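Researcher: I'd like a structural prediction for the single chain below. Treat it as a standalone chain; there are no partners to consider.
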Amino acid sequence: MPNHLVVIAGPTAVGKTALSIEIAKHFKTAIISADSRQFFKEISIGTAKPSKKELEACSHHLIGHISIKDMYTAAQFEQDALQCCEQLFKQHSIIILTGGSGLYIDALCKGFDEAPHADVAIRNELEEQYKEKGIELLQQTIKVLDPEYAQIVDLHNPQRLMRAIEMIRVSGKKMNELRTGVPKKRAFNIIKICLSSNREALYDGINKRVDKMIANNLEDEALAFYHLKHLNALQTVGYKEFFDYFEGKLSHAETVEKIKQNTRNYAKRQLTWFRRDKSYQWFELPQEKKLIIPYIEQQLSLQKQ
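Model: Treating it as a single chain, here is the predicted structure.
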């Protein structure tokens, strides 16, 4: 039987973690994380890492494997995840990849086209602009240079914005023009599943997750890393809002509501990203949950033939 990577994607708070563990236990296999926020070992509450019980339910990989002080790119993830797959496929014929970071899922499944060479002068200029005028200028710039990419990129990730602006300025092309659309060949088959739920249920799940994070002392976790707020890893929903709260820019109630609002906006961008890829089979939770394992087994059976 050929090796298979089963991708379980979807927006934040849709239920990927619990379902992925259920699928991994069914197939007696391991999970690789493609959640770009869960890579960092120091932060846990605001990143919704799996609980200790969930981590013990089956083998998990690429969670908490780097520091918030490390610069970590999707290209580096591609290499780490490929090495992880190579080792895990020695023990399993099926591996689960799960997460909501579409760029990182694509990195493993498709690889990257050859990117334009870095331009140190442009990068230095952008970094100076970011230090002096903040992320808003980067957001405005990418919206002008490439409105389509601005719809799917994480607008709160300054490093990703600067790299995109740099690539566009160096090449003179928009981001979709820099992609050939030809995926790299992988030594395994890929089954791609994307989870969804109706808007009301998804937003309710997001609100409940944020409330749980607050109850678990997200504020204290954010305060512990306030002195490192300039790091790219902390320019993310859940932390940056509390940084504004610590600086007196928001009340506590406004901070919590802002986290919920920004998380909902992030979920919209995730769905936009995944809908662009026609190779996903979509399942709506909770009503179609029972169809997912039979679908995977059907695909495995078809690909044996």
